[in-house]
Task: structure prediction
Amino acid sequence: MGFVTLTVSRPDQGEFAWSVAIAPEVARDEAAAGQIREVVAGAETGESVQLWIEQAGGRDDAFAAELGFQPYRDLWRMQRPLPAPRADIATRAFVPGADEEAFLAVNNRAFHWHPEQGGMTAAGLAERMAEGWFDAEGFRLHERDGRLAGFCWTKVHPDESPPGGEIYAIAVDPDYHGQGLGKPMTLAGLDHLADEGLDMGFLYVESDNDPAVATYRRLGFDHQSTNRAYRHLVK
Result:
């Protein structure tokens, strides 16, 4: 049916015991509702269940509310055509076997608040690097004073129409905040995607992250769609 149910058992992935995602093409009908009810029924008292509705529309809040879910998080997809203006800082490719420790330190300092990206372990990083989409050249690092100051990790989506390039994860070490690195790090990632022949770049950002949204708008990104997360506490 295209409806995906994910079992979440990793405690470092946030508060939820179970998570359900509804793809844009899946009807919000009784069949989908029934599958969601089955997931909720499988949770224990006191556990939370998460519902993600991709490209949420006008009636999705009502659909979720009928199942006992309340919205709590909006993840915006923002995108822009490529190429973008070229970055004015030097970056280099990630080197597997050499850069993992420095990356994890910066990532976990920058994303200490983030339910998915924060708290990444060496094993978790290795899992992502083992994915077929991983490309070390698209994992751009910027160093200052002999240490990692920021990174822009990109991901190519050849199955999109047209094929798109994602700013998968981007961060600046908190020690280098306020030095204007966010914009050029983003452009460095877009440079790589454009050099790969892609015509469109996109990213996902928390809708309430006002500084990041403002930066991306200044770089020519527009809000294209919203993935909305809902939670249900089993009583």
Observations:
- The first strand starts at residue 4 and ends at 7.
